[in-house]
């Protein structure tokens, strides 16, 4: 702006009075969102406790059938699973492993199972006939672990041709 333009501007604005604001607005700086430390700690503890070994509600025998369904699951789906009519997308064989290795492989298997590859898997846990006086260790643990896992909708002992009471059909959440 030249000096001539500036003086012309000042002359034209000399009678102008600033408006008083009717409402005074105070702008506060935006605070960062709070970090829910306790919630994060609780979630980490849940992950550590996931698939707890401390909960063994029932002593199983080698020939016992296993069955679990989330409440509200349609009867048609339950019947289809029980009769083995779902296509088996993948399979995990755990029999012969110790409990620690079986748990690790189960968690990895459930993590890697993609819903696009099918929603029903077969888990072979064995009948536990060689578990001496302790009963079927892996079978009992699998029954417990699957009931606690968030991806499990239902499971049922397989038909004899697919492993019988030594294997499970497991229906996964998509």
Can you describe this structure?
Residues 92-173 form the Smr domain. GO terms for molecular function: DNA endonuclease activity. This is Smr/MutS family protein. The structure is a single chain. The protein is of the alpha+beta class. It has a domain at 65-172: Ribosomal Protein S8, Chain: A, domain 1 (2-Layer Sandwich), CATH 3.30.1370.110. The protein has five helices and five strands. The chain has helices at residues 3-12, 37-49, 75-82, 99-112, 137-148; strands at 67-69, 88-93, 120-124, 152-157, 167-172. The chain has a five-stranded mixed sheet with strand order 1-4-5-3-2, sandwiched between helices. Helix 4 links the parallel strand 2 and strand 3 (120-124). The longest helix is centred in the middle third of the chain and has 14 residues, at 99-112. The chain starts with a helix and ends with a strand. 22% of the residues are buried. The model has no long low-confidence stretch (mean pLDDT 84).
Mean pLDDT: 84
Low-pLDDT sequence parts: none
Tally of contiguous helical segments: 5
Query: What does the largest sheet look like?
Result: 5 strands, mixed
What fraction strand? 5-15%
Mass-distribution shape = elongated
Order of helices and strands: HHEHEHEHEE
The fold-level CATH name of the domain at 65-172 is Ribosomal Protein S8, Chain: A, domain 1
Which CATH class of the domain at 65-172? Alpha Beta
Sheet with most strands: strand arrangement: 1-4-5-3-2
Number of strands: 5
Tell me the helix content.
Answer: 25-40%
Radius of gyration: 32 Å
Distance between the termini: 68 Å
Please identify, by name, the CATH architecture of the domain at 65-172. 2-Layer Sandwich
Estimated structural class: alpha+beta
Pfam families: Smr
Organism: Candidatus Thiothrix putei
Protein name: Smr/MutS family protein
Domain Smr: 92-173
């Amino acid at each position: 702006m030249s000096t001539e333009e500036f003086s012309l501007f000042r002359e034209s604005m000399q009678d102008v009075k600033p408006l008083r604001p009717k409402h005074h607005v105070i702008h506060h700086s935006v605070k960062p969102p709070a970090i829910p430390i306790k919630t994060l700690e609780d979630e980490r503890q849940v992950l550590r406790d996931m698939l707890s070994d401390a909960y063994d509600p029932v002593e199983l025998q080698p020939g016992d059938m296993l069955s679990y369904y989330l409440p509200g699951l349609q009867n048609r789906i339950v019947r289809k699973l029980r009769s083995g009519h779902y296509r088996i997308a993948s399979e995990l064989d755990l029999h012969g492993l110790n409990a620690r290795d079986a748990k690790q492989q189960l968690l990895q298997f459930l993590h890697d199972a993609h819903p696009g590859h099918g929603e029903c898997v077969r888990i072979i846990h064995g009948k536990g006939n060689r578990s001496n006086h302790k009963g079927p260790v892996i079978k009992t643990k699998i029954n417990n672990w699957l009931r606690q896992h968030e991806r499990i909708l239902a499971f049922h002992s397989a038909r004899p041709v697919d492993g019988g009471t030594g294997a499970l059909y497991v229906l996964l959440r998509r």
